[in-house]
TrEMBL record:
It comes from Bombella favorum. Belongs to the NAD(P)-dependent epimerase/dehydratase family. Its cofactor is NAD(+). It comes from the Bacteria. Homodimer. Its EC number is 5.1.3.2. It catalyses: UDP-alpha-D-glucose = UDP-alpha-D-galactose. Gene3D superfamilies: NAD(P)-binding Rossmann-like Domain (3.40.50.720), UDP-galactose 4-epimerase, domain 1 (3.90.25.10). Pathway: Carbohydrate metabolism; galactose metabolism. This is UDP-glucose 4-epimerase. Keywords: Carbohydrate metabolism, Isomerase, NAD. Residues 4-252 form the NAD-dependent epimerase/dehydratase domain.
Length: 329
């Protein structure tokens, strides 16, 4: 099959590109490189440096099909930043995706896999301890709201034009390709695990832990960490599910780890102390987000290979030790 991956120079997108190649598919990447890295794209994979806000340029790429499907990862994704710039996030994420979906319909693409988010949940006080697909959608940030707007765009694209889609609402993507071909490198970096690893390695100053007074067992936030390679596998399995119908899955391990437990894991795996200091809560951060992945497992047989947090940390640490400056190395 021939697939187009938008945002394929970013963290999750680059790992999905590798998974597609490993499965024998032909892949091309569309990325404006505003946050992605050219060197995250394998040299034999075509890269179209295009801004999805430009409908004409986006449509031109879609005209270079046929494409058997599009996997969409390109988006603004910083929760705290979205609270400070809500209209920018709502406009940018929804309109760029609307351009892409419209171009897909115009050029006969039949399958679309969307990188959604667990940030759709957590805005309500009664958020369940394990979040299933039937949980109430109550975004806690404009970022989460923008992703839900996209899910509704895809609903109507299916209902009116027959564009089948899979919305994968995944929780905290973490880790790195076990073979060392790709890893996590954001500028700026806001994700807890790479920041913790960098603090342990002395690449960055002491970690700032946002919130130590949450209603959890140790006062810090609890998140479901899913290895990025397991996440990539879920995307490939979702492609097989949308031959006849659109689907929506929550993707995670079903196990939560607190921020303080992440620090302890990095210290165990690295053999180094992690310097850290407490900081005030960030707007938009719920106390706990843990997935119920039962539906995804039942429909596709998907099961994560990296269940233990230490396993995830080990792959992330190894990649960072080999790339202390990220992709700039």
């Amino acid at each position: 099959m021939r697939y187009l991956v938008t945002g394929g120079a970013g963290f999750v997108g680059s790992h999905v590109v590798l998974a597609l190649l490993d499965a024998g598919h032909e892949v091309a990447v569309l990325d404006d490189l505003s946050t992605g890295h050219r060197s995250a794209v394998p040299p034999d994979v075509p890269l179209f440096q295009v801004d999805l806000a430009n409908y004409g340029a986006t449509s031109d790429i879609m005209a270079q099909g046929p494409w058997d499907g599009v996997l969409h990862f390109a988006a603004l994704s910083l929760v705290a930043d979205s609270v400070e710039r809500p209209f920018y996030y709502l406009r940018r994420n929804s309109l760029t995706t609307l351009n892409l979906v419209e171009a897909c319909v115009a050029h006969g693409v039949r399958k679309f896999v969307f990188s959604s988010t667990a940030a759709l949940f957590g805005g309500a006080d009664d958020c369940p301890s394990l979040i299933s697909e039937t949980a109430s959608v109550e975004p806690g940030s404009p970022y989460g709201e923008s992703k839900f707007m996209i899910e509704r765009i895809l609903h109507w694209a299916d209902r009116i034009y027959g564009l089948r889609s899979a919305c994968l609402r995944y929780f905290n993507a973490a880790g790195a390709d076990p073979a060392g071909r790709a890893g996590e490198d954001h500028q700026p970096e806001t994700h807890l695990l790479p920041l913790t690893i960098d603090a342990a390695l002395g690449i960055r100053p002491a970690l700032r832990l946002f919130g130590t007074d949450y209603p959890t067992h140790d006062g810090s936030c609890i998140r479901d960490y899913v290895h990025v390679s397991d996440l990539a596998d879920a995307h490939l399995k979702a492609l097989d599910q949308i031959n006849e119908r659109s689907v929506c899955y929550n993707v995670g391990t079903g196990r939560g780890y607190s921020n303080l437990e992440v620090i302890s894991s990095v210290e165990r795996v690295s053999g180094r102390d992690v310097p850290w200091e407490a900081a005030p809560r960030r707007d938009g951060d719920p106390a706990q987000l843990v997935a119920d992945p039962a539906l995804l497992r039942a429909d596709t047989g998907w099961a994560p290979q990296f269940l233990e947090l230490d396993q995830i940390v080990e792959t992330a640490l190894r990649w960072r030790e080999q790339h202390p400056q990220g992709y700039d190395d």
